[in-house]
Write a structure and sequence with these properties.
The structure is a homodimer of 402-residue chains. Chain A is of the alpha/beta class. The first copy, chain A, has 14 helices and 11 strands. The first copy, chain A, has 2 domains: 157 residues, Glucose-6-phosphate isomerase like protein, domain 1 (Rossmann fold); 171 residues, Rossmann fold (3-Layer(aba) Sandwich). In chain A, α3 packs antiparallel against α10, α8 crosses α9 and α9 packs across α13. The N and C termini of chain A lie far apart (60 Å). The interface between A and B is large, with 121 and 121 residues.
Chain lengths: 402, 402
């Protein structure tokens, strides 16, 4: 009788680090900070349209939305639209807001045949003329969409095959629309580079990221939910992007055939203090909480020195700047949770609202995801679980029940 | 030696039912379907302003937003705004969209001293004149806000003390703004009544809700996450409302001193097929999934009969209505998950987009929450866990660090 099995085991930090270094040969997002952005910047300068319409879903839109949302006060006056859902009421509402005669359509699909994206692209063809004057395609260079674009002399940008959708925000997928909106994409990549160098070279981030990943993995059965609690509406898009990155990367069957999962939740403060916070504080201890704060909102609006009849007890908020109120709210929530001493928390403070900082934040979350994936011994970069639904859908639609 | 302990035990369905019947004496939301709406409807007719501004957070805004979002194509042309976050950039952005000279401000705070609400209310005083001609207050009838309103002859509507914030959508909190927007609030309450009568009288819903609640409770340690997967952007607000209702009601310490929690997650299809679905399908079996579909979107937009060069393989989607595409996507995802046979799912299908159906949906979720709360022997209606943070904040702000 012979029996041999390589059961799951957590590796040492240094072994994981070596595997991450090795992985860079085949996984493309690691090198994105070092790309040449000249072509993208030059193309962006030529765009004259006022309405920029992204037709793409999931990894083709979430990262761009996150950065656009974060930098919303730091962009030019072009209007960005996202078309992604097949909900007919949603499509109508969004298309109604676009000046179709003054729009650039950016079709983003890695495979080139994403059903939502192509459905909407076809629908738009029935609403306006689409040609090389108002269209760009971002896709793999051997996709059918690429062939379509070439035939019609439509400008294309490539998504490299080794860059997955949810790791593509710093590829042309995110950089092309963001550059058109006036975002300084080089500073964005500088933020990524800082994280890259700090992790791989001077190893400043090494301990921070490794320790966090190891804690999450070693306690994943106890704390199966990872909450990101962001204290600013600027991070609403980031939260959504994080949910895709974390959920789709880490919800996998690993090399031992056991199911892995860390479930992401995104909250916004202070609003969700009035919603989800009770559950964190008194509920079962199944959650870790990562707070994200913005040090300086650069907006000085202040509660005026007004006393309202019978509400004088609230005069203690007078003359306080809202940017201080929201950060005091964050700190108070953090302190209340810390005092319980049985909920794992960490706090990320962003110095200011700019390209460099959002690049840093997002790249560090990508890196953390890769490290956790290595610890639990999964393929972080595929998504085999969603294929069956696609096949069932295709078969349903081919029967053509209208 | 004597030892006695009433450890947690799940009661029979009939015992729980009796407790729910008993609870109606002290918990106000049960009777809301049967209220007289005359005063609200008459007031709504007198509103001439174009911009309706809700100043309220959590339970004071989420329910109204959910119904407004669902019925967005069935309202008059007034513009609804929500001011709730203390994020200075968010406040500026939202206030900029309001015509302050043509606005009605609806201040909603049960306690009358909610810090976010009063901060924003004070800030608005510095931007425009607020008096009885453009302001309404919705609050408890002995709150300081009520006294303030009375002193300034500002119209008030009462929130009954026994109606909690997250159970208040069918009180004046939701009905006043919704009536102003042209929503048929009586039909909304008719939907609630149908659920009420069906559960308490003819008991049609009795088995459905009891069975679901019991399943969730008996398996709460295995499936600690309850996903609502809504296949329409019309339900985005409903998802947020559900998260507050479920999380804040059920995240509690029960009568035996043990922590309870069922963690809510809200997803939107088809977009989240490209995000969270992988985690559901291949990840750890720690989630139940409730799908919500809309039978008829009443919107006929169709994929045109266009063939794109090199993309002819996608011609099978031609001539299909989007409302059918999205429902085929829902059905395909449901089927793919059902085939796995180890993820608990249920499917709610809404016949059409109207007041009656959203009333039904939301009231049945409130009832389900109450039943689960009784099973796990908690107080479903309070939120003691968030008080500590409020005290810490007050102390911080009183030190006045600007």
């Amino acid at each position: 009788m012979k029996y041999n099995r390589n059961f799951y085991q957590i590796k040492s930090n240094d072994e994981i680090f070596e595997k991450i270094v090795e992985e860079q040969k085949t996984i493309g997002y690691y090198r994105l900070p070092f790309q040449d952005t000249k072509e993208i910047k030059e193309f962006a300068k030529t765009v004259t349209q006022k309405h920029i319409v992204i037709i793409g879903i999931g990894g083709s839109s979430l990262g761009t939305y996150a950065i656009h949302n974060f930098l919303r006060n730091k962009q030019n006056d072009k209007k960005l639209h996202f078309l992604e859902s097949t909900d007919p009421l949603d499509i109508k509402k969004r298309v109604n807001k676009i000046d179709l005669n003054n729009a650039l359509f950016i079709v983003i699909s890695k495979s080139g045949t994403t059903i939502e994206t192509l459905s909407i692209f076809k629908y738009l063809h029935s609403q306006t003329t689409i040609d090389k004057s108002n269209c760009v395609c971002i896709t793999e260079n051997d996709s059918k969409l690429n062939e379509y674009a070439n035939k019609h002399q439509i400008k294309t940008f490539e998504i490299s095959k080794d860059v997955g959708g949810r790791f593509s925000v710093f590829s042309s997928v995110g950089l092309v629309p963001l550059a058109i909106l006036g975002v300084n994409i080089d500073k964005l990549l500088d933020g990524c580079k800082e994280v890259y160098n700090s992790f791989f070279c001077n190893k400043e981030y090494y301990e921070e990221l490794m320790t966090k990943a190891r804690f999450l993995v070693e306690n994943k059965n106890r704390f199966n939910i990872n909450v990101v609690f962001s204290y600013s509406s600027l991070l609403e898009g980031f939260n959504k992007w994080y949910i895709q990155l974390w959920g789709e990367s880490l919800g996998k069957i690993n090399i031992n055939g056991t199911r892995q999962a860390l479930t992401p939740i995104g909250l916004l403060g202070p609003v969700d203090q009035h919603s989800f916070l009770q559950l964190i504080i008194e509920g079962v201890r199944d959650k870790t909480v990562t707070f994200i704060k913005i040090e300086d909102f650069e907006e000085e609006i202040t509660i005026p020195d007004i006393s309202l009849d019978y509400l004088e007890e609230l005069d203690y908020i007078n003359n306080i700047k809202f940017k201080n109120i929201i950060n005091h709210q964050a700190d108070s929530t953090i302190k209340a949770i810390e005092e319980l001493k049985d909920i794992p928390t960490d706090v990320i403070t962003i110095d200011k609202v700019d390209e460099f900082n959002i690049g840093k934040l997002m790249y560090s979350f990508q890196l953390l995801t890769s490290i956790v994936g290595k610890f639990v011994q999964i393929n972080t970069y595929d998504q085999p679980g969603v294929e069956l639904g696609k096949v069932i859908l295709k078969n349903k639609l081919k029967v053509k029940i209208n």
